[in-house]
Amino acid sequence: MSNPQPTRNATYIGGPKSRRKAYGSNHPLAIPRVSLATDLIEAYGAMTEAEFMLARKAADFELEWFHTPEYVSAFKRAEALGRVSNPVRQRHQLGTLENPYFPQFFTIPATATGASIQAAEEVIRGRIAFNPAGGMHHARPDQAHGFCYFNDPVLGILRLRREGWRVLYVDIDAHHGDGVEAAFVHDPEVFTLSLHMDSRYAYPFQGGQLSDTASAGNTSLNVPLPKGTHDAEYRLLFDAVWQPVLDKFQPDAIVLQAGTDMIFADPLGKLGISTQGFLATAQTILETCPQHADGTPRLLVTGGGGYHPLVLARAWAGLWALLSGRELPETLPPVATAALRAVDWDMDEDEPHFEQLFSSRVDALTDMSVRPEIADLILSIQQHPFLHTP
Ligand code: ZN
Questions:
Q1: Which of 190, 115, 185, 110 is nearest to 148 (CA)?
Q2: pLDDT digits (tens, 9 = 90+) for 241-284
Q3: Which has more pLDDT, 205 or 214?
Q4: Residue 243 lies in a domain
Q5: CA 386 to ligand 1 center in whole angstroms
Q6: The total number of structural domains that make up the chain
Q7: CA of 306 to the centre of ligand 1 (A)
Q8: 138 catalytic, yes or no?
Q9: How far is the CA of 37 from the centre of ligand 1 (A)?
């Protein structure tokens, strides 16, 4: 059973066919990501020309809705010079080991960011939008953080805010959406919800706790996940926050950061969630999202982290199918298998899940018992000041 035709109005924003490689060669992001996901979607025949939109570079004035003019101009100058000077490296965390220099240093992140602004405009005009190159949720107004140079989710949200919309940001990346949370602490019309690996064992190693109250202003809710959180546990935790937050906040639109490092096979992630669990979460968000008059969800989706190229490409192909209302076949088309096989990747080739990445659709939901610490966490969520006050 498969249905290659879209049944929802959705736009996929991506790069040109000839793509340059960012992040150099010795970095967790030096793997094919968006390009492989796009190849996979095309191998399924799951995108029409009308659904594809070419990403444009964000204008300086748009970047400066959030970023400082000093940061933007230092960043541009580094690309023009072909290197980052020491003062700029120290001041803005550009050209460090974590946020390395690469060719088209400014152009590539500025384009991924322009795409999130385009995505917001697509949502405003009545379509679902997916920008897989976006989701750079750690970037600060004047500093790169955690592989993130420009904070495109913040800029996409700000574009929606210019329409006067209340925005719920939900971040399912394995890491805390700290940069987005910090950006909207003083805006009661934006609420940020993040489920992530507990910062006591994972990047960014601070913040992101349930008790952290940016929610002093009731603008955020964090769910720190224990190591190994699996599908059944994640489902319970997600259900404990999702509908209550929706009911309470009553957004006009939702922005979803869909990093795939929350999936079990990710080399930087420490969670136990399946690809099917990832997609089930996205489906719940899609189905409960505020809608335009014609029933199209007001949903902007970005990519995010994800350091296993095969898992990432398969998860985002599945996500695009879900957003555009398509049914993908259970078995991968041979062209898709060939595209995945061509990737130079062997980190987990001895693991039991590896061969399945090239054959059947996705790994299945795991069925495991729920640990007591998860039950305790759910009780604490129910007592959270944002959900608890009438
Ligand atoms: Zn992440």
A1: 110
A2: 999 999 999 999 999 999 999 999 999 999 999 999 999 999 99
A3: 205
A4: yes
A5: 25
A6: 1
A7: 6
A8: yes
A9: 17
